[in-house]
């Protein structure tokens, strides 16, 4: 399973080795730290090990992609890191907050203060205008928007003239930009995005990825993105590869070809036809 | 969060409308009940106050409300006229009288029967002459304009005057109104009035006006002092009945205001009964509506669970979600209540107009919408809505933020808890009902009934699945594949289906219980009447109105009559031993005739033990040998000894005394029915025909009936009550059926995408329609069957208690129950029409891409 891979810049890892999990340059501090996460659905023969002893550090102000075959545990990992779901064992720290054993109230506060989300289905509230959707997280938290930052964000996503439109009047790409802006506007410690371009055509997808990239570069935003697309992963600073609930590899400064090669090798270990 | 809620609601106007419908119905019913009651009593209040204006004091032989009158003598009127400070005195009599339509010969339904002897003094006379002349000569009458028109009577026309005394010809000499007019009323020449009501030249009341500047109380005190100083001024005038002459009636003095208040109170007691009755049904409707509100809001939040999960992921707290849902409910409640208030006022206006037109003696009036009604409506609607929203709100707040990204997991039902609660409730219901029936305890049976309904509601979500599977079987043949889908749709949301049916369960249970109770009661009427009366013919006034004593003698004189026994009844305060007096109905009969004609089930003694100074009592009310004191207002107490105990029967009051004893304290006590036996060789039918032919002219208000006919008439009273109650309960059924339409409509909207998918894979519009219809039929059949079964059990336990120890099988009106179930199912199919059409019309592409 841990056979050396041809692509340059990749290291094969066993997730059991604790200090090899930093996927980015050593200088970066970790925005999210996870240790020994396991999560099992069902029991006995029917047990599905969605996560097996996963430890990972998400570097601050970096763009991290999570890849892996369908069912490898990407979404599960992300949900656990974001405090949307709890692991059976292991620990997660987001910024200064230790998630383990948090009550619903504290988790709510965590989501307000430290975490932003971008969903595959955009998940804008259809009855609110783009502006209202943007301001929703702040309103929920009972906070005022910082007008300067709001303008910067709106400017960055390039939606200035469409703010009074409702989601149904926006294209998919535009809706996802609103969703990105919504995640940015409360300046979270980290933004999680599960296949944010999964519902978009490749050009629009590329635009959104460019936007995410810019958020990292210009605002120092930390972003974790689950994706299936090697081209998308290539926009990231580093990639974490999951297979069967384990981190099987990481890659810094990924290229589309390099990512594809790792993915192929993972598929091969499942005896799938090469190039599938 | 509030903006999100409000915008979300506005974007779903159709759903908002659907969910508000149940609130509108409930509140409309409450509003209509209140304002109808207010309008009716308000209308009478004003008229009574106007009619008594200018009257300072009133002397009555009985109570202020005119019950149990005795006769006041003309010399008393003369004596009062001499009293210092009194400027005018007039004696008069009041009673029941109607004019006949000279064309048809019938008595109009809209005549109230209220009539009074004419008083010449304008101020003391409650009537005001508006046209023609006053009735100052024998057999002259005046009538209100509306009644004259509906009878087709002109001034100068002759017609017959119908009272409980023999009918007589009278002439209409003028038109007169009571108060502001609009009330059906009759003014009769004073001496004629005294004759028809049996006062001779005596009076039932004396109206007194004092000098300018004296208060009512001063005038009343002066009159009272004069009465005390002039003994022997009461009794009967010449020509009054012997019984009246024997009476020792003490007159009482009231101020004009007191009389008005007493009259108003008596009326309010009547209208209050109607209002209370209506309010009970309004309450039931609101309770049923509560289920639908709960259901609607549950569905609305379930449909938005993804949106709610996104909000949670974006940092909304549980409290914020709960508040959002509750705010939504409150808005629906307020909007629905406002609409319901308007609708209810409209309904009340319509009903008042209808009642005046049907002429139930209701004066023309505007509908009064009192502040209380507005407040109740505007508080009740939102409160019920908010309470009903708490459960869905709690469920909504339990949405996991992960659901924003995953397909919603199947909601976990806490079946075990539910089953436990349901079992406990069922056990409670059974225990309370069984004990209640055995101990004949109304509270226990009531508790049993309530827990039975609750148990049915709690069992609902567990029952609906298996029940639907069984019920769906016959439809599979009929509708094929769509049935399987419909079955699945009902089963996959057991809470929703159960809540929808619950409204129907409650509605059908109530009408069925009413039917069972009604049929048991009319069965009881039959066996009781046949069992306790031994006569060939019964003479009575339709509807059980009491009538004067002349009829008994007149009937006894007819061909073929062997014996006539008059049964009298009076309301009296009865004290057993030293205990506090209670108001009871006291029956009276000649003891010898009672022994012949009454077949009472005696617990102690026999009917032969009835004699002057003795009384028979219903068992449990008193013990053998107890001394009983019977008091009628204005008369000295009658002291009697209990000589026998009988089982209660609808044929008699709680006590039976001799006719002579009752006449001693209540000389005017009227007959309620006459029992007549036929001579040898005359059949009951023949006697009935003879008497009827005689009565139709001589005593037009009385009817002769064979025993079978009398039983039938008593049954029809019960049947009418059952019909009326069922009609009112029908409204809660209507609400329940709207609920079925509502739930289906919402679930069609919710399943837009799925229906689009089904259509895209080849389901025809027809199949879609029948799928939705079968869903409605399944839920309705389940609800109606469960409701029917519940109603049967409820009806049986309640009847058992009402029939208190009477050994009679509770009868089950199977046909009627089947009819209710059938009607509910058919109505559900009708209710499903719109949702079915909407589902069938969905454009496939739009539906598939719908969110
Ligand atoms: N609620 C659940 N109950 C049972 N099994 C689950 C549940 N959620 C996820 N799983 C299982 O856990 C494993 C990991 O799921 P996860 O959604 O994390 O995969 P993924 O990598 O995101 O896949 P994809 O790329 O298809 O989205 C899968 O085998 C899945 O079947
Ligand atoms: Mg996934």
UniProtKB/TrEMBL annotation, chain A:
Q: Is the keyword ATP-binding in the record?
A: yes
Entry-linked InterPro entries = AAA+_ATPase, ABC_transporter-like_ATP-bd, ABC_transporter-like_CS, ABC_transpr_LolD-like, MacB-like_ATP-bd, P-loop_NTPase
In the UniProt record, does the keyword ATP-binding occur?
Answer: yes
Q: Which Pfam families match?
A: ABC_tran
List the residue ranges of the region (Disordered): 1-20
Ranges of residues in domain ABC transporter: 32-269
GO MF: ATP binding
Report what the protein is called: ABC transporter ATP-binding protein
TrEMBL record, chain B:
- TM spans (from-to): 277-300, 321-354, 374-396, 417-437, 443-464, 502-521, 724-749, 770-794, 814-834
Per the record, membrane topology reads:
Multi-pass membrane protein
What does the UniProt keyword field contain?
Cell membrane, Membrane, Transmembrane, Transmembrane helix
All copies of the ABC3 transporter permease C-terminal domain together span: 280-400, 728-843
Leader peptide range in chain numbering? none
Keyword DNA repair among record annotations = no
- For whether the record's keyword set contains Cell membrane, the answer is yes
What are the MacB-like periplasmic core domain coordinates in residue numbering? 17-225
Q: Where in the cell is it found?
A: Cell membrane
Protein family according to the UniProt entry: Belongs to the ABC-4 integral membrane protein family.
What is the designated name of this protein? Membrane protein
């Amino acid at each position: 399973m841990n056979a050396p891979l041809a692509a340059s810049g990749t290291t094969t890892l066993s997730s059991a080795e604790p200090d090899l999990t930093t996927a980015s340059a050593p200088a970066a501090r970790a925005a999210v730290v996870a240790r020994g996460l396991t999560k099992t659905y069902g029991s006995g023969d029917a047990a599905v090990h969605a996560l097996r002893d996963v430890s990972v550090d998400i570097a601050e102000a970096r763009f991290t992609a999570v890849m892996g075959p369908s069912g490898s545990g990407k979404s599960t990992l992300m949900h656990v890191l974001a405090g949307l779901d709890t692991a059976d064992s292991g620990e997660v720290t987001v910024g200064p907050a230790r998630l383990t054993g948090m009550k619903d109230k504290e988790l709510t506060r965590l989501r307000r203060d430290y975490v932003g989300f971008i969903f595959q289905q955009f998940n804008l509230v259809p009855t609110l205008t783009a502006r209202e959707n943007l301001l929703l997280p702040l309103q929920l938290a009972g906070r005022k928007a910082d007008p300067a930052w709001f303008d910067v964000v709106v400017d960055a996503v390039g939606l200035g003239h469409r703010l009074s439109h409702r989601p149904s009047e926006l294209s998919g790409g535009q809706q996802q930009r609103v969703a990105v802006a919504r995640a940015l506007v409360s300046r979270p410690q980290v933004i999680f995005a599960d296949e944010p371009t999964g519902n978009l055509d490749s050009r629009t997808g590329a635009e959104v990825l460019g936007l995410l990239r810019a958020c990292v570069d210009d605002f120092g935003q930390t972003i974790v993105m689950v994706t299936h697309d090697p081209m998308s992963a290539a926009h990231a600073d580093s990639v974490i590869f999951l297979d069967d609930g384990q981190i099987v590899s990481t890659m810094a400064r990924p290229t589309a070809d390099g990512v594809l090669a790792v993915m192929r090798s993972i598929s091969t270990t499942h005896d799938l036809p090469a190039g599938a | 969060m509030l903006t999100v809620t409000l915008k979300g609601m506005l974007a779903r106007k159709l759903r908002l409308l659907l969910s508000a419908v149940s609130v509108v119905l409930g509140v409309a019913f409450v509003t209509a009940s209140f304002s109808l009651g207010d309008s009716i009593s308000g209308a009478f209040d004003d008229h009574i106050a106007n009619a008594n204006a200018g009257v300072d004091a009133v002397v009555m032989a009985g109570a202020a409300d005119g019950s149990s009158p005795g006769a006041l003598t003309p010399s008393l009127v003369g004596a009062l006229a001499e009293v210092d400070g009194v400027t005018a005195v007039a004696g008069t009599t009041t009673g029941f009288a109607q004019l006949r339509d000279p064309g048809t010969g019938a008595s109009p339904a809209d005549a109230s029967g209220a009539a009074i002897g004419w008083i010449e003094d304008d101020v003391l006379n409650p009537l005001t002459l508006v046209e023609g002349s006053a009735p100052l000569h024998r057999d002259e009458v005046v009538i209100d304009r509306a009644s004259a028109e509906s009878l087709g009577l002109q001034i100068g026309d002759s017609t017959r005057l119908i009272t409980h005394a023999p009918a007589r010809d009278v002439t209409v000499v003028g038109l007169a109104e009571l108060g502001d007019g609009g009330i059906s009323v009759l003014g009769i020449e004073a001496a004629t009035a005294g004759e028809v009501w049996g006062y001779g030249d005596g009076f039932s009341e004396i109206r007194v006006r004092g000098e300018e500047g004296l208060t009512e109380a001063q005038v009343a005190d002066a009159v009272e002092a004069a009465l005390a100083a002039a003994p022997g001024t009461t009794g009967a005038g010449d020509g009054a009945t012997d019984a009246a002459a024997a009476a020792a009636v003490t007159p009482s003095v009231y101020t004009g205001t007191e009389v008005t208040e007493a009259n108003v109170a008596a009326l309010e007691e009547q209208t209050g009964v109607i209002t209370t009755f209506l309010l009970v049904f309004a309450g039931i409707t609101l309770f049923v509506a509560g289920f639908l509100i709960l259901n609607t809001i549950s569905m609305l939040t379930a449909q938005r669970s993804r949106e709610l999960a996104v909000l949670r992921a974006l940092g909304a707290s549980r409290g914020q979600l709960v508040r959002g849902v509750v705010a939504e409910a409150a808005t629906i409640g307020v909007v629905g209540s406002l609409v319901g208030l308007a609708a209810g006022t409209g309904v009340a206006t319509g009903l008042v107009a209808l009642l005046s037109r049907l002429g139930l003696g209701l004066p023309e009036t505007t509908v009064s919408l009192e502040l209380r009604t507005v407040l109740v409506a505007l508080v009740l609607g939102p409160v019920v809505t908010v309470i009903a929203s708490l459960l869905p709100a709690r469920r909504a707040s339990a949405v996991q933020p992960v659901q924003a990204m995953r397909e919603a997991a199947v909601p976990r039902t806490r079946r075990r808890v539910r089953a436990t609660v349901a079992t406990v409730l069922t056990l409670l219901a059974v225990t309370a009902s069984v004990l209640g029936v055995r101990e004949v305890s109304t509270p226990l049976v009531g508790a049993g009934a309530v827990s039975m309904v609750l148990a049915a509601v709690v069992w609902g979500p567990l029952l609906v699945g298996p029940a639907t599977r069984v019920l769906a079987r016959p439809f599979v043949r009929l509708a094929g594949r769509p049935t399987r889908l419909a079955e699945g749709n009902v089963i996959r949301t057991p809470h929703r289906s159960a809540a929808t049916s619950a409204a129907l369960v409650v509605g059908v249970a109530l009408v069925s219980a009413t039917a069972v109770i009604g049929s048991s009661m009319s069965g009881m009427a039959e066996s009781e009447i046949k069992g306790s009366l031994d006569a060939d013919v019964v003479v009575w006034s339709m509807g059980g109105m009491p009538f004067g004593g002349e009829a008994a003698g007149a009937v006894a004189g007819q061909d073929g009559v062997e014996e006539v026994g008059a049964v009298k009844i009076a309301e009296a305060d009865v004290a057993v031993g030293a205990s506090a007096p209670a108001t009871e109905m006291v029956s009276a009969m000649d003891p010898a005739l009672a022994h012949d004609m009454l077949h009472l089930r005696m617990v102690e003694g026999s009917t032969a033990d009835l004699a002057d100074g003795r009384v028979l009592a219903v068992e449990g009310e008193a013990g053998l040998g107890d001394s009983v004191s019977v008091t009628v207002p204005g008369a000295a107490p009658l002291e009697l000894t209990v000589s026998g105990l009988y089982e209660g029967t609808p044929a008699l009051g709680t006590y039976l005394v001799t006719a002579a004893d009752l006449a001693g304290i209540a000389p005017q006590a009227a007959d309620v029915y006459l029992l007549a036996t036929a001579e040898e060789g005359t059949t009951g039918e023949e006697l009935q025909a003879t008497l009827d032919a005689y009565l139709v002219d001589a005593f037009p208000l009385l009817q002769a009936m064979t025993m079978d006919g009398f039983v039938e008439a008593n049954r029809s009273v019960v049947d009418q009550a059952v019909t009326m109650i069922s009609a009112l309960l029908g409204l809660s059924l209507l609400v329940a059926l709207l609920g079925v339409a509502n739930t289906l409509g919402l679930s069609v909207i919710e399943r837009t995408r799925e229906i689009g998918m089904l259509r895209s894979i080849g389901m025809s519009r027809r199949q879609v329609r029948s799928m939705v219809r079968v869903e409605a039929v399944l839920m309705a059949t389940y609800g109606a069957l469960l409701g029917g079964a519940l109603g049967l059990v409820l009806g049986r336990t309640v009847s058992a208690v009402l029939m208190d120890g009477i050994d009679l099988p509770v009868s089950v009106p199977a046909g009627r129950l089947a009819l209710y179930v059938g009607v509910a199912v058919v109505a559900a199919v009708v209710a499903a029409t719109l949702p079915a059409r909407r589902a069938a019309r969905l454009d496939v592409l739009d539906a598939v891409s719908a969110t």
